[in-house]
Fold this sequence. Notes:
Elements: H1 3-22, H2 30-41, H3 60-72, H4 80-85, H5 89-100, H6 115-124, H7 135-138, H8 156-167, H9 176-184, H10 187-199
Helix pairs in contact: 3-5, 6-10, 8-9, 8-10
Bound molecules: heme C (2 copies).
One heme C binds at residues 53, 121, 131-132, 134, 136-138, 147-149, 151, 159, 162, 174-175, 177-178, 181, 193.
Amino acid sequence: MTSQTLLRIAALAILASPLVAQAGDASKAISLAGNLCASCHGEDGNSAIPNFPKLAGQQVVYLLRELKDYKSGKRQNEVMGPLVSGLADDDLANLAAFYASQKPAPGTVTEPSLLPVGKTLYLKGNAASDIPSCESCHEVDGSGSGKFPRVAGQNVEYLLEQFRLYAAGKRNNGTRVMRTIAERMSEKETRAVSEYMASMP
Ligand code: HEC
Ligand code: HEC
């Protein structure tokens, strides 16, 4: 092998390594998650506190992107930003893999009477106010896929806060669609669709 070829192989290996690291190793995040995250998000990512999001069973692609965005400040939050700012990208990938592999627990519905309204909006959208269906991106069962987050079983208080942030333009690291939707939904629809998402197993 010429030294040229060796150099090229070395360069390719360096270029490829971040991609390999992206995959994440859940087992390497267990102690980090226990020390840094469990107090708010629960040991297994099923956050018991209503305004903290559940992470268990969340899409790995989505988790990693949000963690990187907290780190870079693209998604702003005074709790999460400082927490992840000192972590390496490998740690973030491992944490994402860890929470994605945990089993999601059922959510808590607080106003069952709103479920039918929420279900209709989730599955059909609202043509009159030009709101698309949620299932077209978040899946019929709310499990999400890739960059589309799982919403099934999510905590209602957390969801309501996110819609407030989207509508106010304060959560703007992702797709513009969510802001438009949050602006168009009535207060009742917002509450109802949040209850419906929490009710999905
Ligand atoms: C002091 C409580 C607290 C701790 C500790 C904490 N979080 Fe959070 N986490 C929150 C809150 C509150 C939010 C919602 C923030 C927002 O509105 O953007 C959040 C949001 C998140 C989100 C976004 C979830 C979503 O559905 O978009 C992820 C991912 C996350 N945290 C991961 C972690 C990880 C990993 C750790 C440990 C390194 C951690 N958190 C530690 C309180 C905490
Ligand atoms: C065109 C695709 C698309 C449609 C339609 C859509 N979403 Fe989303 N949604 C996304 C994407 C992508 C994200 C990831 C975060 C971001 O971009 O801010 C998201 C994020 C969310 C979040 C935040 C989840 C979290 O863990 O923080 C909620 C809640 C949500 N969507 C609810 C809804 C509801 C309710 C509807 C229907 C009224 C809906 N979405 C329709 C693409 C979509």
